[in-house]
Amino acid sequence: MSRPEHIAPPEIFYNDTEAKKYTSNSRIAAIQAEMTLRAVELLCLGDDGPYYLLDIGCGSGLSGEILDEDEHVWAGMDIASSMLDIAADKDVEGDLFLQDIGQGMGFRPGTFDGAISVSVLQWLCNADKTENRPRYRLQRFFSTLFMSLQRGARAIFQFYPENDLQIEMIMGIAMKCGFTGGLVVDYPNSKKARKFYLCLFAGQAAPGQKQELPKGLGSEEADSSVTYTDARIQSQKRGKKARKSVKDTASWILRKKELSRKRGKEGVPLDSKYTGRKRRPKF
């Protein structure tokens, strides 16, 4: 089976049809949610949240839904306009940007407390256009990302490397741009369950504090300082009903209304004491 990045550029590959197919696939949604949960765990965020996070390659907002459940504030960027249209139709709470990450990003220095990315980084390694040079695009991306993160923040990238040379190129350029860190491999002995996470540190949180690279799941040294909550994965496998749902509550409805008003939408219902109440059954 050919890799998607070898078929067409992402803005062409994820057209309206492919974007709807990707978003409506329950298996893809479950895998995406599981990898997002793992990426958030690797961020090692404290209990002083919510935090302001950047979702790189946010697509149709599947990862953003997990960030919403954790009550984080987030912004997402993607190059596929069809994906962003679906995210906008779902009224996700994050701010959405149509952006080619290979051209860098224009956020203010120290804007974000962390960044996550799921199944995106390998697209930068593909020269799908004559003007696209992978090394230049990776350097532009990592250098601007380093500036936009707070000191000591982490950036976690789940990606599908094509070979070892691609991993070396990505990590080498990231280190030249100021990052430290390394590669975390979950279940390295399983071809099906193996997942690659590039864990990057934007400097040290405080002088004298050294950030340690967490160990991958399923390895002999899995007992690291970062404890991965297996209960969350088990809950994910049981389905969304197993997790505490925040949708359709009064606070969730009021927050969605306020978000729609800020975005200039017309016809937003007024707030009242009946907002979020369940209707009685009809006779």
What this model shows, in words?
- The protein has 283 residues and is α/β, with parallel strands linked by helices.
- The chain is built from 9 helices and 7 strands, in the order H-H-H-E-H-E-H-E-E-H-E-H-E-E-H-H.
- The protein has helices spanning 10-13, 16-24, 26-42, 62-69, 81-89, 134-148, 164-176, 230-238, 250-262, and strands at 52-56, 73-78, 95-98, 112-118, 149-159, 180-186, 195-201.
- It has a 7-stranded mixed sheet, sandwiched between helices.
- Helix 3 (26-42) runs antiparallel to helix 8 (230-238) and helix 6 crosses helix 7 (164-176).
- The radius of gyration is 20 Å and the shape is globular.
Features:
283 residues, alpha/beta, seven-stranded mixed sheet
Number of strands: 7
Range of helix content: 25-40%
Biggest sheet, in brief? 7 strands, mixed
Question: What is the number of helical segments per DSSP (H or I, 4+ residues)?
Answer: 9
Could you name the ranges where pLDDT drops below 50 across 5 or more consecutive residues? 222-229
The global form is globular
Strand content range? 15-25%
- The largest sheet has its strands arranged as 3-2-1-4-5-7-6
**Radius of gyration over alpha carbons?**
20 Å
Structural class of the secondary elements? alpha/beta
Average of pLDDT: 85
Q: What is the H-and-E element order?
A: HHHEHEHEEHEHEEHH
Distance between the termini: 56 Å
In a few lines, what is going on in this structure?
With 283 residues, the protein is an alpha/beta fold. It is built from 9 helices and 7 strands. The longest helix is centred in the N-terminal third of the chain and has 17 residues.
